[in-house]
Amino acid sequence: MPFSEFVRVAPELGLDRLFDYRIPEGLRGNIRLGQRLRVPWGRREILAYAVEFPRQPEVENVRDVAAVAGERPLIPPGLCQLARWMGDYYACDLAAALRTILPGPVRSHEGGGKVAWWISPVAGKKDLAAKVLQTARVQAKAWAFLQDRGGAWLNVLVRESGFGTAVWKALVDRGLAERSERRLVKDEEGPEEGWTDAGKKPELGEEQAAAMEAWEQERKKEGGGRPVLLEGVTGSGKTEIYLRALEAVLAEGKNAVVLVPEISLTPQTVARFRGRLAGQRVRLCVLHSAQTVAERRESWHEIREGRARVVIGARSALFAPLEHLGLIVVDEEHDGGYKQGESPRYHARDLAVVRGRIEGASVILGSATPSLESAHNADRDRYLRVRLRKRVDGAKLPKVHIVDLRKEERPKAGGPVMLSGVLRQALEERRKKAEQSLLLLNRRGYAPSVQCPHCGRVEECERCAVPMTYHRSVGRMKCHFCDAERPAPAVCPECQSPQLKFTGAGTERLEEAVLEALPGIRWTRMDSDSMKARGAHGKALAAFREGRTDILLGTQMIAKGLHFPRVTCVGVVGVDAALNLPDFRASERVFQLLVQVAGRAGRGEIPGEVFVQTYTPFHPAIQFARHHDVDGFREQELEYRRAHGYPPFRRAILVSFSGTSEAQTSASIRHVAERLRGLWKGKVEVPEPCAAPIARVEGKFRFQLFLLVDKVPELMADLKREALAPKWPAGMRATIDVDAQDLL
Ligand code: ADP
Ligand code: ZN
Ligand code: ZN
Questions:
Q1: 534 and 414 within one domain
Q2: What is the pLDDT of residue 269?
Q3: 32 inside domain
Q4: Is residue 462 in some structural domain?
Q5: Is 741's C-beta closer than 6 angstroms to any atom of ligand 1?
Q6: What's the pTM?
């Protein structure tokens, strides 16, 4: 095949455009996809990535590529293809997709990693050296030193010999020594912290063994087989399956990525992977948001060079630059955290499936409550469904009680019912037996709104159309959308009434109720306010594990992946607000959360109990969760989705406009809708745009166009051209969210 003459590059400058260059004769055949290049740019040179090899350049006068930076492509070819797919599917530019794939700390660093000069003697130069160094005594000594020492890092030579950099450089200039750029390799490749529990491997249960067998069969098929949807009840040993699958691919010399929803919230899962890998002396790289820029860069190169073969992290770990990928695991695949909230708005679970296909790697999606999207794919045999129906060691799923709050007596002091009689009693019993409890209330702060009963004034955010939440611990009102805050008022700012009413409840209020009902109880509140300090989360979990606390109460933080055998009681304090959100997935989310948090109970020998407090006890999400009936819920929910043409039967695309002028923003989105209506007549129904449920955020008015379509890619060109390409007035912004999850 003749080598291509042109290359299309994505510059590193952050421009969302691609540019063409000619490949000079001498470099032809040396440039691969993903390679980093130096290209002329005005009067200077910049770094850019090869992303395509066009037959013809788009412009006539193309300039020559100046040089190839680095011997290997910086971006592995598989990821280049993934970037392309993202660009097409998520309506973002290829350059933007590449920027997502290649972390900032890597991009902004010329050589990447820690690069240093390596100096080595040039062989067979004895005679030359004797001649030219007659008059240069210092250089002669240095040369002799280098002969003895062999190759070494420049800084090491300087330190050990006492001869400065200039001396060594002179030897290089004379052709007596060579210098090359090498990446520093960490000296210690040995065990990392926490590599303990090496090789401790339980015997697989019957269901687990069958699941492994099914996975093995599937992945032998062409291209790594179909994605496997591992649907197992909480505590059924899914993680053990991930570990076995991981061992299997590692044994074949392949590498793996493991995605977890939130790395900081899943220390136990990470520890289990570490423990298992310790036995194999395989290096694991954990990517997390608390890493410094330098650490992130270091990790990235460690992975790129194949020193770390297993990568665990949250959604962006999907872009780990591993080659020879054998397995991608997505744990808790239904979790909303896999969707990126800003452009490119990718879904890491879906991208995992795409990456698996590109690289021929097996993909395992695991959950007790799969997303309806994945479940639907399994129903249609696009994914292979593998089930674990029983808990390990025959532990029983907890009994779920529904507590009808309408029948509960209201507190005399006013305010909502926080702890029903039965829940309070259950907590009391647990304390007596030295067992533990979890209390979930998925809302932080004390009260979600503050209202004056006299004039009706509600404390609203000045910039957003939402009530502000009262945070009693700091005596302030906070906006949960823009983080604005101000002191909490003592009297109504409108009519000076001192009787402000705190409506609804958050975790601070729950904390207060727990202390009142159970004096002397030992508790920890766990939400993003109370867990701000570094390490706070780990400490709280350690205290709980060691039995130094009786109750862990908090937001969904407490629902994720924790395994505490002494937890025998879980209380869900309120779910009604979440059920009433204007979002077709509200029910699905509540169901998933309920099953997940219920799954924290009774994981040890003592059976668990769950109490769900609600004003709508007959809601399907609650009733199906009560019976752990994942199939029943799915069936009913799919019926509803089908009837309305919602995902997973169609794709949801949310076009949003936000701007400082309400009229202008509304008119612009209407105009776009009108154009699309003309273009897609008879193909796609284009509804009227409307104000977003939260109509104003950070001082900007928000409008939405909610599209339900059968196929995404062919519509994208029109959509991008009509919504994104026009130069909208200053202060106005348009976005496209494909497979939108956040509809507020
Ligand atoms: P899941 O991921 O489905 O919630 P886990 O993999 O965390 O379940 O398993 C729950 C508990 O059971 C863990 O403590 C795990 O170590 C243990 N476990 C898993 N598989 C087995 C097995 N085959 N034999 C004994 N214990 C097991
Ligand atoms: Zn008032
Ligand atoms: Zn606000």
A1: yes
A2: 83
A3: yes
A4: no
A5: no
A6: 0.85
